[in-house]
DNA sequence: CAGTGGTCTAGACCACACA
DNA sequence: GTGTGGTCTAGACCACTGC
């Protein structure tokens, strides 16, 4: 367990993980306190604290004041997915990126959108459609709605040159986002843009972002054939 | 900014975030060092360190020794998804859970599986198929392959009573997992189990887990109609 | 009320990466 | 080399919560 002369919080973490895996501290059981472990490992309590805090963040253990620390029975695993810019995503695949603008319009927010992101009946939205290509093959169709009240500057942005995705990240910080993934069938129009068949399954990502309770944007990203989202943990 | 008499790492974090949002430290710029900030905020360096470390973990800033800390130009956002037991997932929706065993067999690992998770040509696998229901409606079809070499105990488990999902979580720790999501069309057999139409899109989740380079299990989870995976960040 | 984790401090040394 | 972040320490006080 010694990697050097001093005990690192990583050593402590690994040792604890090992004991949990070895069922030395079985799921549901109470682990020793920080002070006790610090003495056993010959390190400061802060070191044990950091190790255990990280394990708690990862969902391996559960900590409560006064009650102590327990090994989680069903460790709720967390998978972390990176949410990059489409361009970054494509370029990191080693492919060339191309952006294509499709349409732009300004409308009263349609009812379904008002309901979805809590807009008033008189709020106007900027509606953009565009495509993202990887090596000139259709990669993603972006259907973007921007709340003009929250982002008046979007009116003057030139979305024929820069994608709304990229413009928003650069211009508008957000405090909160909701993202969801599902599978859906492409309709006839979408099928043409993505070079797919009408009714073919596609991976759909929907995103809403807010800046302090003020809805900024709603987007539907439809991915082309064969897209998969992968992560390790 | 003061929440009490002492400066918390949360205060520091919020203050830094505020300045980044206000473009006081624009994207790509070099931020002051830890010592300087600690002096400005009137707290210890460790406090600033923790604040900045968390911001770095969240992808907001980028830290390098000697080079200093910079605001990320394109903050790579991370979305965290919980990966619970199917049962837990269903119950937390307020629905009743039911498990149904379908089939069990022991075979030489098929070629596609050997290639997928790096098995030898003579390795045997336990193949289980089962269903998970929410309020008696089809929720998920689980197609599970277990590496017998890595998990000999699985041979004697009673998978007609407990789902492989649950058995594995309880019995076999893993050190690493890969998970991926995609959209696919249901084939004829799957359609019957999920009460869907042949060719209908469904959300597909694939998972591989390892224990120190030793592949343990591969699973395909096919979700029923309308499933969506959602998170906030 | 008392015990456990949560956090802050002040100081120290180390490791890495840039010049 | 030298400066910046990375980490450990020893000690202290606080806050929550179960008894």
Features:
233 residues; alpha+beta; Arc Repressor Mutant, subunit A; Chorismate lyase; six-stranded antiparallel sheet; two-stranded antiparallel sheet; 36% strand; elongated; DNA-binding
Structure explained in plain terms:
2 copies of one chain form a homodimer. The first copy, chain A, is of the alpha+beta class and 233 residues long. Chain A has 2 domains: 9-71, Arc Repressor Mutant, subunit A, CATH 1.10.10.10; 86-223, Chorismate lyase. Helix content of chain A is 27%, strand content 36%. The first copy, chain A, is built from 7 helices and 10 strands. The first copy, chain A, has helices spanning 9-21, 34-41, 45-57, 86-91, 111-117, 164-171, 188-194; strands at 61-64, 68-71, 77-83, 97-108, 124-134, 137-147, 176-185, 201-211, 214-223, 228-232. In chain A, helix 2 packs across helix 3. The longest helix of chain A has 13 residues, at 9-21. The radius of gyration of chain A is 24 Å and the shape is elongated. Strand 10 of chain A pairs antiparallel with strand 7 of chain B. The first copy, chain A, binds a DNA duplex (19 and 19 nucleotides) through helix 3.
Count structural domains of chain A.
Answer: 2
**What spatial form of chain A do the alpha-carbon principal axes imply?**
elongated
Number of helices of chain A: 7
Enter the CATH topology name of the largest domain in chain A. Answer: Chorismate lyase
Largest sheet of chain A: 6 strands, antiparallel
Write the layout of secondary structure elements.
Two copies of one chain form a homodimer.
Chain A: H1 9-21, H2 34-41, H3 45-57, E1 61-64, E2 68-71, E3 77-83, H4 86-91, E4 97-108, H5 111-117, E5 124-134, E6 137-147, H6 164-171, E7 176-185, H7 188-194, E8 201-211, E9 214-223, E10 228-232
Antiparallel strand pairs in A: 1-2, 4-5, 5-6, 6-9, 7-8, 8-9
The first copy, chain A, binds a DNA duplex (19 and 19 nucleotides) through residues 6-9, 33-35, 43-47, 49-50, 52-53, 63-69.
């Amino acid at each position: 367990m010694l990697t050097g002369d001093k005990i690192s919080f990583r050593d402590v973490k690994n040792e604890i993980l090992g004991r949990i895996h070895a069922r030395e501290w079985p799921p549901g059981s109470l682990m020793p306190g920080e002070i006790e472990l610090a003495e056993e490992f010959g390190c400061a309590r802060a070191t044990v604290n950091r190790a255990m805090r990280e394990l708690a963040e990862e969902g391996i253990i559960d900590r409560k004041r006064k009650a102590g620390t327990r090994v989680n029975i069903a460790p709720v695993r967390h998978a972390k997915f990176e949410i990059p810019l489409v361009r970054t995503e494509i370029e990191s695949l080693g492919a060339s990126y191309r952006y294509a603008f499709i349409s732009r319009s300004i409308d009263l927010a349609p009812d379904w959108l008002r309901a979805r992101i809590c807009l008033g009946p008189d709020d106007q939205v900027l509606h953009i459609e565009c495509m993202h290509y990887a090596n000139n093959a259709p990669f993603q169709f972006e259907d973007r709605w921007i709340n003009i009240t929250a982002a008046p500057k979007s009116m003057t942005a030139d979305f024929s040159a820069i994608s709304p995705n990229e413009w928003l990240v650069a211009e508008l910080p957000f405090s909160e986002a909701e993202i969801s993934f599902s599978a859906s069938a492409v309709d006839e129009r979408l099928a043409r843009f993505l070079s797919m068949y009408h009714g073919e399954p596609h991976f759909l990502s929907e995103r809403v972002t807010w800046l302090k309770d003020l809805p900024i944007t709603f987007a539907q990203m439809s991915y082309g054939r064969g897209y998969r989202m992968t992560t390790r943990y």
